[in-house]
Structure prediction request, 693 residues.
Amino acid sequence: MNTGLRTCRRISGLPHAARLILPPLLLLAPVAHAQTAAQPGAQGAQDQPPDVQLDPQLAPMPDIGVAWPDMGQPDSVTLMVEVPQTGTPSATAEPPVQLAAPETADEPAEEATTFADAGEERRYTVTLTGVDDIADAQFNARFNELSVLHLGEGKPANLAQINRRIKEDSDLLDRLLRAKGYYAARVRGSVAAPPPGSDRLAVTFRIVPGNRYLLSSVDVKGLETTGEREPKLRAAFPPKPGDPVDADAILAGQASLTVALAENGFPFGKVDEPEVRIDHEERKGDLDIVVNPGAYRTFGRIVMADESLFSARHVQRIARFHPGDTYMASDVEDLRQALVATGLVSSLTMTPRDAGDGEHVDLAIDAKPAPLRTIAGELGYGTGEGYRAEVSWAHRNFFPPEGSVTLRGVLGTQEQTASFTYRRNNFRRRDNVLTGLVSISNIKRDAYDARTLTFSGSLERQTTILFQKKWVWRVGGELIASDEADAFSNGNRRTFFIGAIPLSLTYDGSDDLLNPTRGFRLGGRLSPELSFQNSTFGYARIQLDGSAYQPLSDRIVVAARTRFGTILGSTVDQIAPSRRFYAGGGASVRGYGYQAIGPRYGPNDEPVGGKSLAEFSLESRIRFGNFGVVPFVDAGNISTSFLPRFRDLRIGAGMGVRYYSSFGPIRIDVGTPLNPQSGDPKVAVYVSLGQAF
Prediction:
């Protein structure tokens, strides 16, 4: 579909209106200057080859008319050149160059300034006058992009080159003004001596826009066949009589009407190019636009060209529409994004096809598979976690559709783990994820040493970068056998058998998953657990999280976070060390070691965790382009009672650096403890993807 306007001129007094049909007007932006220095003298300057190369691949700019000359006015654009003399010409020198347009009845020509060397190259500046009320951001952006003067503004140019650029930019300004509805504008370009304090010539365009043409009639033809949907479709085309003849507004209305057809059950609807008939005597225009809506349709079947990745039944589960629903192009686009988000397709084609029954439109999908196997590795070091190497192998569609398996191994100074994970995305319905896990691990921390066998499963509704959701929930089950030692066991190991039913619910009212700048988040977790170690006892782990984000300006966001946790039932020494609360580290209180905050016990002053947790964070995120700095302060504490105590808060502060990549911010935080305990580090460094909270 073309995006131009067909424009014709209506001439009063003729038996038949003369018409001129224009194709879409392309404003080609110059992309290079192949300038050659001109020789002194008028002839040398005039014989130079053109200094601008045009790129024909640029997108079209809307145009709705032709500059029809007013009777009695000259057709040409007036050019005035004023250049300071650079020296006293000798008696044998060639005559100096003089460029001046002839005087007109309305505006006398300015006196041209001569200069001796037409080939001298000088830099210049460009100024527009007379369009302050017209030149909005879009007007200025188009002129700056397409202006040949702006393209060569940083390089010296001689008089002939500047003249050619003035002529081209005068034509450009005339087209830009006509796109705004000013058909009788006069554009006058001139070059003057450098202003005081500058060494650059002053190129100035003096513009008289004239009166803006208005629409005298707007006729949208073809919508009368759409029945009860006609009022809604007509409302999708905003231009009305009395509005300016504005190309952008008219073309935006054309696009809006095209979208409205596709959103209201007309998948094969078409909107022809708008046609504007201009009457220069009345300074008005008549707008006609023809619509071919086609037949009304509802969704029919989903038809897969190849079901090796997905079956049509599975794709229908993912879709947010059902057979019989009104066809909406936005529903089709939503399904396209959901299929791309699975990571299983490399290319995807979705085509509406008439079902042939006079009622439905089927959706034909051709999906090409992406590489399904992935091998990943990771090497790293973390304070409190030691050196660590991880390798994993994954097949993302081992059990079609969307049933993935992952084998993972970790080898480190403080952790050795092997695990198998089964995961099925879009389980039974859109966005539901079913997960099963079997793992065996040996983890040695300052707080405890645990050898653990875990069987777990969960059903959850997840949020992703592509589809950030307000509400997220998770229901799971865990069976754990763990042999553990901590400071309370005096070097003796204890074996725990634990069954748990973890539940969680989160509300996300922020504007971004990885880099929120406004809004808030609230989350709660509840895990009733039954433990056997010499005797059977039960307890419940509860945790509440909240964060808020408030922009102070375009560059500064203040973020705050709080977390409270408690374990109801039992005592600290009875609960398995790996199930207690801990604080300290990059996702907790920065500046302190991992799990290092809280009560300590034994001859080695080892952290033992606790039954309650309180954490607070405040930071200011200051952004400069793709980089930013984040001063922060964190506080937190662990208590052995079921309610947290605030009098022994450990406080850390520091500075972070952010690099805002296309997939989210990469953060590096450096923190230091303000009231450290014995053995706490003086500085801690944390690196991760995404903001701290």
The chain has five domains: 6-88+95-208, 214-292, 298-369, 372-437, 445-689. The two ends are 46 Å apart (CA to CA). Confidence is low (pLDDT under 50) at residues 9-116.
